[in-house]
Specification:
The structure holds two protein chains of two kinds. Chain A is mainly beta. Chain A contains two helices and seven strands; from the N terminus they run ααβββββββ. Helix content of chain A is about 5%, strand content about 30%. Chain A has a seven-stranded antiparallel beta sheet, with no helix packed on it. In chain A, strand 5 and strand 6 form a beta hairpin. The two termini of chain A are about 30 Å apart. Chain B has three domains: about 180 residues, Alpha-Beta Plaits; about 70 residues, 5' to 3' exonuclease, C-terminal subdomain (DNA polymerase, domain 1, Orthogonal Bundle), CATH 1.10.150.20; about 150 residues, 2-Layer Sandwich (Dna Ligase, domain 1), CATH 3.30.1490.100. In chain B, the strands form three sheets. A five-stranded mixed beta sheet of chain B has the order 5-6-1-7-8. In chain B, strands 9, 10, 11, 12 and 13 form a five-stranded antiparallel beta sheet that branches. Chain B has a three-stranded mixed beta sheet with strand order 3-2-4. The relative contact order of chain B is 0.11. About 0% of the residues of chain B have low confidence. The chains are: A mainly beta, B alpha+beta. Strand 1 of chain A pairs parallel with strand 14 of chain B, so a sheet runs across the interface.
Chain lengths: ~140, ~425
């Protein structure tokens, strides 16, 4: 796995190609005009993963987050390096169990809020056993 | 000033298991070796209960059941991925060239560029960042040399509440206090026998006493050059340099216990062929070729645990005319060796393949002096490795490995491979 980097300084830009990698750069000269515009294809990792060692994947089970557009079977991309911010969808640790909810905070209280009226809000009291596991950054949903 | 840290994951395998099972925090957890034979990782709570490290699982079972200890088969896919994450985090923090990965769960970091008085802050930043990003708790030991950093790490781990998993030896007073608190047997690189020798012959009990010995003493009585280096390291003079990671292995082995005892020679041959494929894959991954193939099998009645040093195993080897990394060229002699070892009527419980006489693989670059044919085979091997790597689970294998039986390890209590398989992701609601 070493040496495989999709982010940060490791992204080489579009100019770092050898002749072998650009198939049109043969001796006929025909493809040469297009070579100047050759660049790396779109890579989902660049867009979806900002911090690879801190990024984990989960799979959504059930409909608790339906109104946020997160459906049963969707893949969740979770970044552990992000801070706990009000309004974000998070993976929470509540009483030792992992749970996906939207986190809300005002100056007097904190809540875990489902995106489905059939589920109840969870009030995070002072003595509730709660911590952040990671922040959900993207959803992969099959159409 | 030269300063080195060792960053070491706390009870690494147990921490990996807890990442997706937070209800096991502060509960006793153990992880078993291949085939669920022995205990290879224990959480602090399990240690407190008196569960023995490297003890056979069946012996610890009553204790484990009585205290409701959570038991896991080893999940090397998960541990390997989390280990990569921890190391990658360190490399992102300090730069690739300043991190030396020492083992699956520990790395040395060169901190020489930082002011000595900032090292406490840096240590806690490292610990917090690694834990936040990867979910794995680490201990940090810092000192002027690798041996002192290791010594600091041991003290950090010993009393986690007090040290917060961090010990920094950045002044002479702190170094001397740490040396005084460390028995010689707990110094990195001092084995049990040397520790006994130092105690009984010269009355050296602590690392501090050992440090005050002179180099002539070490040269004659304490392992020669190695001993001299160790004493220098204790004095704060760096004698073990940061090393490049990943040294190619001199010997590659794949051995497994069978799920249940096996009597048929064809079954054993299939198993040996499977292990050979696995070993050949490892061989190609480090771009080497092997010249010697050894095979061993162990009979069911042989009490492997008690007298493996006696004639517990039956083994034989063959030397090939040319070193090779091609699975087909290795399987043939390996399977033939089984014929020389197998005894009809016996039941066998374990087999293994070892490849040695390892040299760099010359077939990797299309060599002018190698026949065309060889280059084709090389391509075939690369393709098999690529397909098996991307599809996982050995989609392609040699017919000699059999098509029905699965010769993989026994792992009854393995947790899902949450971070490496799409179909085993954690389902969250």
């Amino acid at each position: 796995m070493d040496g495989e980097e999709f982010y940060g300084a490791a992204y080489k830009g579009s100019k770092q190609f050898t002749q072998q990698e650009v198939k049109t750069a043969n001796a006929t000269g025909f493809g040469a005009a297009a070579d100047d515009y050759m660049e790396r294809g779109i890579d989902l990792n660049e867009q979806l993963i900002h911090n690879k060692p801190a990024t984990y994947f989960f799979r959504m089970k059930g409909d608790a987050m339906r109104d946020a557009g997160i459906f049963d079977g969707d893949v969740l991309i979770v970044d552990r390096s992000l801070k706990l911010v009000s309004g974000k969808v998070i993976v929470a640790v509540l009483n030792g169990e992992l749970l996906i909810r939207r986190f809300y905070q005002n100056f007097s209280a904190r809540f875990l809020i489902p995106e489905n009226s059939r589920y109840k809000n969870i009030n995070l009291g002072e003595f509730t056993d709660f911590s952040l596991w990671g922040v959900v950054t993207y959803i992969i949903h099959a159409v | 000033m030269e300063m080195k840290a060792i960053v070491d994951c706390n009870n690494f395998y147990c921490s990996c298991e807890r990442l997706f099972k937070p209800h096991l925090d502060k509960k006793p957890v153990v992880v078993l070796s291949n085939n669920d034979g022995c205990i290879i990782s224990r959480s602090d709570e399990a240690k407190k209960l008196g569960v023995e490290m490297a003890g056979p699982y069946f012996m610890a079972k009553p204790l484990i059941q009585e205290h409701n200890v959570s038991v896991f088969s080893s999940n090397y896919n998960l541990y390997g991925d989390l280990s990569w994450r921890v190391m990658e985090t360190l490399k992102m923090l300090f730069g690739k060239k300043n991190v030396e990965v020492y083992s699956v769960d520990e790395a040395f970091v060169d901190l020489s560029i930082f002011p000595v008085e900032e090292l406490d802050d840096i240590a806690s930043q490292v610990r917090e960042t690694v834990e936040t990003w990867t979910g794995i708790k680490v201990s940090v030991g810092i000192g002027p040399t690798k041996v002192l950093a290791k010594l600091a790490n041991r003290l950090a781990k010993k009393n986690k509440q007090q040290t917060n998993c961090i010990t920094v030896l950045n002044t002479d007073e702190k170094i001397i206090e740490a040396l005084y608190k460390t028995p010689v047997g707990d110094i990195w690189g001092v084995g049990f026998q040397y520790a006994q020798k130092l105690k009984t012959l010269w009355g050296i009990e602590t690392a501090l006493q050992l440090r005050n010995m002179n180099e002539d003493f070490a040269k004659t009585y304490f392992g020669g050059v190695t001993g001299v280096r160790l004493i220098r390291e204790l004095k704060g003079v760096a004698s073990k340099k940061m090393e490049d990671e990943l040294v190619n292995k001199k010997m590659i082995a794949t051995t497994r216990m069978f799920g249940s005892p096996v009597g048929d020679i064809n079954d054993i041959k299939e198993a040996v062929a499977t292990y050979t494929s696995r070993a050949a894959e490892k061989l190609r991954r480090q771009q080497s070729a092997a010249k010697v193939v050894s095979v061993f099998i162990v009979t069911k009645d042989q009490d492997h645990m008690l007298n493996f040093k006696k004639h517990g195993t039956i083994t034989n080897h063959v030397t090939l005319p040319v070193a090779t990394s091609f699975t087909n060229e290795l399987i043939k002699p390996a399977v033939e060796l089984v014929d020389t070892l197998y005894e009809k009527g016996q039941l066998y419980k374990k087999a293994g393949v070892m490849l040695s006489g390892i040299v760099p693989d010359e077939s990797i670059q299309g060599n002018l002096f190698v026949t065309e044919n060889k280059n084709c085979e090389r391509k075939l091997m690369d393709m098999i490795d690529n397909i098996n790597f991307s599809q996982r689970d050995d989609v392609l294998k040699f017919a000699a490995s059999g098509t029905t039986r699965d010769w993989k390890m026994r792992q009854e209590l393995r947790s899902p491979r949450y971070t490496t398989r799409w179909d085993e992701l954690y389902g969250i609601s």
